[in-house]
Write a structure and sequence with these properties.
heterodimer; A: mainly alpha; two-stranded antiparallel sheet; 2 strands; B: mainly alpha
């Protein structure tokens, strides 16, 4: 019985032949079969639990401090954009840099609904998500033959042009000063205030993280990840690669738009400069820093980046430098990211403990299972 | 478009983009890779020179020498410490190398900002000569140097790449790293030389351009994208491609804001880039292979 447990551990702890080349993603091999899916499913509940605990701690930590409120909100925005980038970039292998534009679409649709119509404000969230998904699909359709730096460049130029348009179309977007001071969001008469807002932000991030993680393990997610590795094989098995790519891009854009809507709802102001063009690079770095195996990596990366750049007083201006250096070092030395390191450490520890247990009591399957 | 002064500005900007494009081009034909850190090299060279002169009281030429040396070393480090290890890891490496070089671009930019300040530093006057007047246009010394030097560099490199053994080696290695390796060509050395030259060119470009427009630590990203666009518009089939692309780009950057206002520039840029990317991703001068 115990012999069945030990190979599991050794395979998880050391990157063996089943773990594909780590760069840039340490995505699990889809062919590992049901066993792996079951185990990932177990881990993924564990990650959810850890995320809920950390989220709750963040809410408690924020207390009544408005600066901490804004930090948590910023982290939520970063995390949603990070997860938005994660879907096409890490899972699908296409680097789109238009996320500042998608977040702006989310933000502006909330602001426009709140300031120019009498419709319920939360409608802006759905409209923003839908509109940016449509924008991403159109942009993706135009650039469907491009990959790598070509795609990155054209999407970056799109974000830049979109920002210019926001600046110049003052009739709709309020120009440089943007739209501000619009009515607060009310959900069927209930107006959430500070505490409720950050609870909602944290819940939204965790829900999105969990949903995307489930999606990663679904047949669709596995197909998407297979496309990243061998597009020809996916095309040959009857899946339209270009369509799959478009769906991934649209989905990522919608998630990023949620981030923009959330941030705008909380701050009650949106300007063309709210979602800077540099934000998208941070979003790419989040996944790399936190770990590419699951979307939780992007979320962890977002929290880390907010901590490093905004919350460590001694780092004031050097925070961004530190983030850039850490990202580069992680990419070169530990491509699985922070969560990857944590996971490896945890598994090593678990296997050490399991070995010790086994030495004490030769047959003890239930303990081995709970540690796996 | 009948103002000669605007044409001078367009030509100067175009030369700058062309030089950046040439820096891309060298790594592209030598290593088959878009080295986006080019923009960071350029801003590093410009910033370091100005910082040494303004803050450390260096005289101009030693400052330039130090700045170019540092830039070349950084470019070499890009290949040795970042691109090569990441590409060696294998599958999916194109995107991984691209992203890690982008991270490097941010490291350089943030480091420059941290060390030399986040403000825009003025560039240095390179030669003390009077502005030249040609027709209705006044060409400053810096603009003159930029344009003349760019064309000289392009001519020189075109000759070197076409006629010398080193140039043939560069193209051979770039066409296929594995095949060149199999033939026993010094792939690693050639790639390193391509990166070093790329750093030198980008450094010269950054120095020359910041002497006219000033330079800040955040210039790098925009310059990186401009240089890339120059290569894409011009095409990588011929060494003249980046220069032509750069000048087209320079004209867009000057004439569009003049006629349609500043906000139109980015939109026109997107349209032009999208047109080239979707209709002619190989650029104006594509490589033709005769079979």
């Amino acid at each position: 019985m115990s012999t069945e447990v030990s190979p599991e551990h050794s395979r998880a702890a050391t990157p063996g032949p089943l773990t594909p080349a780590p760069a840039p993603s340490a995505a699990p091999n889809p062919s590992a079969g049901r066993e792996s899916a079951r185990r990932s499913g177990v881990h993924d509940k564990g990650s959810l639990m850890v995320a809920v605990v950390i989220g709750a701690l963040l809410i408690v930590w924020a207390g009544n401090n408005s600066y901490r409120y804004s930090l948590v909100q910023t982290a939520a925005l970063y995390a949603l954009i990070g997860v938005g980038v994660y879907i096409p970039f890490v899972m699908g292998g296409s680097l789109s840099l238009a996320y500042a534009a998608y977040a702006s679409i989310g933000g502006y649709s909330v602001a426009l609904i709140a300031s120019k119509t009498s419709l319920p404000v939360w409608l802006g969230w759905f409209i923003g998500a839908a509109a940016s998904a449509v924008a991403a699909v159109i942009l993706g359709q135009l650039t469907r033959r491009l990959a790598g730096l070509y795609l990155a460049c054209i999407t970056f130029l799109f974000a830049q042009a979109f920002q210019s348009w926001l600046n110049s179309a003052s009739g709709i977007t309020g120009g440089q000063s943007g739209i501000g001071g619009f009515r607060a969001t009310s959900i069927f008469g209930w107006v959430p205030h500070h505490r409720a807002q950050i609870v909602m932000a944290v819940v939204l991030v965790i829900a999105v993280g969990y949903a995307v993680d489930r999606m990663r393990l679904s047949p669709w997610g596995v197909t998407l990840r297979a496309m990243r590795e061998v597009p020809a094989a996916v095309e040959a098995s009857g899946v339209r690669v270009s369509m799959l790519n478009l769906v991934a891009l649209g989905f990522g854009a919608a998630v990023a738009a949620l981030g923009g809507s959330l941030f705008t709802t909380v701050t009650s102001v949106v300007t063309p400069g709210t979602f800077t063009l540099n934000l998208v690079f941070l979003a790419v770095f989040m996944a790399l820093l936190g770990g590419q195996a699951t979307p939780w990596g992007a979320i962890a990366g977002a929290v880390l980046i907010v901590e490093l750049t905004l919350n460590v007083p001694s780092l004031e201006t050097s925070g961004s430098l530190l983030v850039a250096i850490v990202v580069l070092v992680v990419m070169l030395v530990a491509p699985t990211g922070v969560l990857g390191i944590v996971n490896t450490g945890r598994r090593r520890l678990a296997s050490v403990v399991a070995d010790r247990r086994r030495a004490d009591t030769p047959i003890d399957q239930s303990d081995g299972d709970s540690l796996a | 478009m009948d103002q000669p002064q605007l044409w001078v500005s367009a030509l100067t900007q175009g030369s700058f983009f062309g030089l950046l494009g040439l820096a891309y081009y060298l790594v592209l034909i030598g290593a088959g890779f878009f080295n986006i850190a080019v923009g960071a090299y350029a801003s590093l060279a410009g910033l370091l020179t100005s910082w040494l002169v303004v803050e450390k009281d260096f005289s101009l030429w030693p400052a330039i020498a130090i700045a170019l040396a540092v830039t070349v070393v950084v470019a070499g480090a890009t290949e040795l410490l970042v691109v090569r290890p990441v590409q060696r890891r294998g599958r999916g490496s194109e995107l991984a190398a691209l992203v890690s070089v982008t991270a490097l671009l941010f490291v350089i930019a943030q480091f420059a900002g941290f060390e030399f300040g986040y403000t825009t530093l003025p560039g240095q006057q390179l030669l003390d000569i009077e502005p030249v007047q040609i027709g209705g246009a006044i060409i400053t010394a810096n603009a003159l140097i930029m344009i003349v030097l760019t064309f000289a560099i392009f001519l020189l490199l075109a000759m070197l790449i076409r006629t010398t053994r080193a140039g043939r080696l560069l193209r051979a290695v770039g066409d296929s790293n594995p095949v060149a390796n199999m033939l026993g060509l010094p792939v690693h050395r050639v790639r390193l030389i391509a990166f070093l030259l790329c750093g030198l060119l980008a450094g010269v470009a950054g120095l020359l351009f910041s002497s006219q427009a000033g330079v800040s630590s955040s210039s790098g990203l925009g310059w990186a994208i401009s240089g890339f666009l120059a290569v894409v518009i011009g095409g990588a089939g011929n060494i003249i491609g980046p220069l032509i692309g750069g000048i087209v780009l320079g004209m867009l950057q000057i004439f569009v804001p003049y006629y349609w206002g500043g906000n139109a520039t980015n939109i026109v840029l997107l349209v032009v880039a999208a047109a080239f990317f979707s209709l002619r991703p190989q650029g104006a001068f594509a490589q033709r292979v005769r079979v």
